[in-house]
Automatic annotation (TrEMBL):
UniProt keyword Transmembrane helix, yes or no: yes
Residues covered by the EamA domain: 7-135, 147-281
One GO cellular component term: membrane
Originating species: Halanaerobium kushneri
Annotated keywords: Membrane, Transmembrane, Transmembrane helix
Coiled-coil ranges from the UniProt annotation: none
The name this protein goes by in its record: Permease of the drug/metabolite transporter (DMT) superfamily
């Protein structure tokens, strides 16, 4: 087996671990804020020894206001997404959160003055149609699943916001120290939230703490680390588009392990959304590649 095939297999493993996130969260019985806090706290604790051994000099970036802001946005993203799973189906939640790349394209259009090509516009329209189909299917539970869908959609917006704003910091920092500082600030803000809402930090049961640890090790450390490794050897577009497999795998696991039914409207709407994300991402990446080639030709 050649090296590139091994990378593809490794990438598949990474997507699988990312897909476990929604399943593990569904099994947790603790409040969403506590779940988000301990997921980040355990992640930071596991990463701390390596950071101070290899990247101690990068600690000065803790004083940069941008990682602080991005960490806050990440914390809000986790709260919204984990909360959404309590109100709607896992399949709905992961599909709406997958809209993150489309929000990123829209933010780039408004704030980075990057053109919206026809393919990206068609992709966004497809995603809107898919979101409408899923929401119409949930109309019979207006106060429940529609609210959960809205939370997941908001989580996608905050995810794209923290990625968009964090681009400037990532240009100065290696991926690992940037991620460590980001996770640390997210854990800090989530801890403040737990304190302000007077949620006890302890007494949530051994099973929940084990699930918190599993969230930190599986989706966060293993899943994201593999994606970061794979992007060194595969194109960014392939890695970013492979993430579209996450809602598909999560939906299948929810049906298999949690006996969660998948409605026809979710399947139809999800197909539109994932197809739209694929189309928009392909055109967006193609556009950026052409712009890069033009700049290189001019220089």
């Amino acid at each position: 087996m050649d090296f590139k095939k091994k990378i593809y297999i490794l990438l598949t493993v990474g997507i699988f671990f990312l897909s476990l996130s929604g399943i593990l969260i569904k099994l947790v019985s603790a409040p969403p804020l506590i779940t988000a806090f301990y997921r980040m706290l355990f992640t930071v604790l596991l990463l701390t020894p390596y950071f101070f051994i290899k990247h101690k000099s990068k600690a000065r970036y803790f004083l940069d206001y941008r990682p602080l802001l991005v960490g806050f946005l990440l914390a809000v993203h986790f709260i919204l997404w984990i909360s959404s799973i309590q109100y709607t189906d896992i399949s709905n939640s992961v599909i709406f959160v997958a809209l993150q790349p489309l929000f990123t394209i829209i933010l780039e259009y408004f704030f980075a003055r990057e053109d919206l090509k026809e393919g990206a516009v068609i992709g966004i329209i497809m995603a809107v149609i898919g979101s409408t189909v899923i929401s119409v299917g949930d109309l019979y539970q207006l106060g429940d699943k529609l609210f959960g869908n809205f939370l997941a959609l908001s989580a996608a917006l905050f995810a794209s916001s923290y990625l968009f704003i964090g681009r400037g910091v990532r240009k100065k920092l290696d991926y690992f120290p940037y991620l460590y500082i980001l996770y640390t600030y997210a854990a800090l803000f989530l801890g403040i939230g737990v304190y302000l809402f007077k949620i006890p930090f302890t007494g949530h049961g051994l099973n929940n703490y084990l699930l918190f640890l599993a969230l930190a090790i599986g989706p966060t450390l293993i899943g994201h680390s593999i994606l970061n490794f794979a992007v060194r050897y595969l194109s960014t577009s392939i890695v970013s588009l492979s993430i579209l497999g996450e809602p598909i795998i999560t939906t299948f696991l929810a049906w298999l392990l949690l006996d969660e039914a998948v409605r026809l409207t979710t399947l139809i709407g999800g197909a539109f959304i994932l197809g739209g994300i694929y189309l928009a991402s392909v055109y967006n990446n193609h556009q950026k590649r052409r712009q890069s080639e033009v700049k290189q030709a001019q220089s």
